[in-house]
Recover the amino acids of this structure.
């Protein structure tokens, strides 16, 4: 298919050399769909599909969004009017021709339809009509449709001919196109696919680390980090095959180099993300831990990117209960007191956007799973205590700042900390803490109002004796009024 140059069905075809504006195109596709709905037979739908295939559609990228949606609706309506067996098995192989000959944007439309009807079409794509699946595999290297095709293809990696097709494409394409194929493998692994089943692709992705192209190296490390952090089975596989040991050796070589190279941050992220599913394995890689804590301790000497990397990595390591216990176990050797001091100093200094990111990192670090384990609660309390005594006051000062990003970050952090019963007493030491929470003028965005309402609900649910009874009544009234209720004072000010 290509840019619609005329009208089909009961509408005369125009010469391909004539220009057709988007308004006319939109009308054509809409009218064609209306005609089909009035005469919705399989024969009519097949004829219309065949006519669409005969039109030159090389300028679809010039269509307006509205026109493109009209075309999408038309194609989906055609497919809905054809039985699944006939869609795949009719003699003219119209679906196969459409996938083979259409521009990427139309392939995306077709793939979206197949994804929405996967339970109906999966048997055809995996057994009886694999030529259609192979045709889709051939389109994976095209940027405009690669994402949609990848979301479909990963589900057919158990089909040998599909896997072989992707392997052949991998061997004969440029780096940018290879990584579109690797994206299929990435989705497969993140969705729980067995890494042994795609070992040849994993090996090929590892070879990208030997490339002289720094971008290929970075993409490979980030892809490994992404899949390893989401599936413990993938992390275990990478460890068992020696991949992680080989990557660590590379990491050591880079850290011994004076400038540590462009790949250093990506490798730090990999080992940090690996810890999400297997934190104890980090004990085998002391150079990584040494490097991360050294970055934290000297954060004020780093450029913004490495400063963020330092605190984000600590946060990722401690983002779950297992990670918190691990950090506590190594706290003496790596000086967690000094680490939390650095967290407090970083949150209180530097450009505003960095402070926001550091508060988000701290929110990740103190995030707790329900129900709250007493041991975890004590560990986090010691961390918060070591941030510094002014921390609750600083947190509430940010909460009332006239900058939306820092207000939202402070709210996110307060919400996480209120999962611990001891935090309410710390916040109550801040002058006018409850008045600031009850002041509806502090937050003006929908997201901020919603989070503030959640803070109020957490305070009520705590039943803390530290909250005076009159304030508890005010909190309960706030809860009943909902997150978006304006105070009478605000309404009067906005309507003088």
């Amino acid at each position: 298919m290509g840019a619609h140059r005329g009208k089909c069905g009961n509408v005369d075809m125009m010469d391909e050399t004539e220009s057709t504006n988007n308004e006319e195109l939109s009308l054509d596709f809409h009218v064609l769909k209306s005609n089909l709905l009035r005469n919705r037979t399989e024969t009519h739908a097949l004829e219309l599909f065949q006519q669409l295939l005969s039109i030159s559609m090389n300028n679809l990228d010039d269509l307006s969004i509205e026109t493109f949606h009209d075309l999408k609706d038309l194609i989906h309506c055609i497919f809905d009017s054809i039985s699944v067996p006939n869609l795949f098995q009719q003699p003219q192989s119209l679906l196969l021709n459409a996938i083979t000959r259409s521009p990427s944007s139309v392939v995306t439309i077709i793939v979206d339809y197949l994804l929405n009807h996967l339970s109906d079409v999966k048997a055809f794509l995996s057994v009886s009509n694999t030529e259609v699946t192979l045709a889709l595999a051939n389109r994976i290297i095209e940027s405009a449709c690669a994402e949609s095709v990848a979301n479909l293809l990963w589900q057919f990696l158990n089909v040998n001919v599909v896997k072989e097709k992707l392997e052949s494409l991998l061997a004969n394409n440029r780096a940018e196109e290879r990584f579109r194929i690797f994206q299929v493998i990435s989705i497969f692994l993140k969705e729980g696919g067995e890494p042994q089943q795609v070992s040849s692709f994993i090996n090929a992705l590892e070879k990208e680390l030997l490339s002289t192209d720094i971008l290929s190296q970075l993409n490979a490390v980030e892809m490994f980090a992404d899949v390893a952090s989401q599936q413990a089975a993938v992390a275990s596989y990478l460890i068992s095959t020696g991949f992680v040991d080989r990557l660590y050796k590379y990491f050591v070589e880079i850290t011994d180099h004076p400038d540590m190279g462009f790949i250093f941050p990506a490798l730090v992220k990999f080992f940090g993300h690996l810890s999400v599913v297997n934190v104890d394995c980090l004990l085998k890689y002391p150079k990584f831990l040494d490097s991360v804590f050294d970055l934290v301790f000297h954060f004020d000497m780093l450029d913004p990117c490495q400063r963020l990397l330092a605190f984000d990595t600590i946060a990722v390591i401690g983002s779950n209960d297992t990670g918190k216990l691990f950090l506590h176990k190594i706290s003496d050797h790596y000086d967690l007191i000094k680490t939390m001091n650095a967290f407090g100093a970083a949150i209180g200094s530097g450009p505003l956007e960095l402070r926001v990111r550091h508060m988000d990192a701290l929110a990740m670090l103190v995030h707790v799973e329900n129900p709250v384990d007493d041991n975890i609660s004590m560990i986090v309390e010691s961390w918060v205590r070591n941030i510094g005594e002014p921390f609750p006051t600083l947190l509430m000062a940010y909460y009332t700042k006239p900058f939306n990003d820092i207000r939202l970050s402070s709210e996110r952090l307060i919400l996480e900390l209120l999962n611990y019963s001891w935090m309410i007493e710390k916040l109550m030491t801040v002058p006018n803490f409850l008045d600031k929470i009850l002041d509806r003028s502090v937050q003006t965005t929908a997201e901020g109002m919603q989070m503030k309402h959640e803070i109020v609900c957490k305070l009520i649910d705590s039943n803390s004796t530290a909250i005076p009874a009159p304030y508890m009544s005010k909190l309960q009234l706030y809860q009943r009024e909902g997150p978006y209720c304006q105070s009478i004072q605000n309404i009067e000010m906005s309507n003088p």
In short: The first helix runs from residue 22 to 38. The mean pLDDT is 89. Residues 332 and 338 are 10 Å apart (CA to CA).
